[in-house]
Amino acid sequence: MTYQELKAEENKYVMNTYGRFPIALDHGEGATVWDVEGKKYIDLASGIGVNCMGYNNPKIIDAITEQAHKLMHVSNLFTTAPMVQVAKKLVEKTHLNGKVFFANSGAEANEGAIKLARKYSYDKYGEGRYKIVTLINSFHGRTVTTLKATGQDRFHNYFFPFTEGFDYAVANDFDSVRKKVDDMTCAVMMELIQGEGGVLPLDADFVKQFEALCREKDLLLIIDEVQTGIGRTGSLFCFQQYGIRPDVVTMAKGLGGGMPIGAVLAAESCSNVLTPGTHATTFGGTPIVCAAANAVLDTVGDGQFLAQVREKGEYLKNGILSLGSPDIHGVRGMGLMLGIIVDEGKHAAFANKLIEKGVLAITAGKNAVRLLPPLTISKEEMDEALHIMKEVF
Description:
Radius of gyration: 21 Å
Oligomer: single chain
Mean pLDDT: 98
Order of helices and strands: HEEEHHHEHEHEHEEEHEHEEHHEEHEEEH
Helix content: 25-40%
Strand order of the largest sheet: 4-12-11-10-7-5-6
Structural class: alpha/beta
Largest sheet: 7 strands, mixed
Shape: globular
């Protein structure tokens, strides 16, 4: 079908909840995709950071195919090897000595972390200690609870009443955090790089102070790595570059390499809080998805691969800066999670122009063109994208 034919049927049958770009994608290879009419694009968005190993990756395809011939899904009332293997790799590679709960998305992972934090405090201190402090400009999901956890007022509309028990501090302002933490607080939750908020890395000193406050007050430190995790910033998890030890790490996106998965990794300090009957999900840890996650972790968890991610990030960042465009005011981020900073309000126009010319990019915050390419992107694909960027910027 042509794009116009597909779009007509989409308008007829699919809820209009996305402002989609005028493209219908058909297939891909590496970090390159083609639409239904044969136009080629260098993908610097990778499904908002999901397709970390690119398109048509034989390791993921083989893992999914092999597992599909055995078991695609079973109830969580039974044990399966792929689920256990993914959990073991996550625990061993993070050295948190904890345990994992599997879900289906980042929002679900954050919901699980919120429940875990509140039960941890209830078990230890009883009722009344339930508040979770997040950061202004954060983003934690689209469910009613994770919308409220999100520190952006524009998301707190329409769906009243929201889940209560959240408060918001200013990022990189420790005095603001101290003022928000009180006797009702059980946890703090933050992204180390605010992705949706504009690709905004937190200051290392602020993060260390945050961690120290959690130890002082017996608060769980929840690090939302839905977007920053699974090699995106050049380490398996971003917290490893900040030198902190979280109590809870949430993840999703890249973990499945294109398959839907989320996970809550609880460190030893709180790994036994969620007990039978206190949390569950039908599809969490399902074998075919975990088969893909195992293939991802076997590749992305390798130190040499992560070093290459850091090198590619520097190459892409320096290439963008060397364009010398007066419209580019800098590049923020770490590894292959980058934001090209432009004048406020102009980021959407630049993203649209890039897509028109053959580079898929998205936006973040008020002034960032966000880049989340596959971690496997080649130098040739980056050079082709930079050539198009030079024309656009």
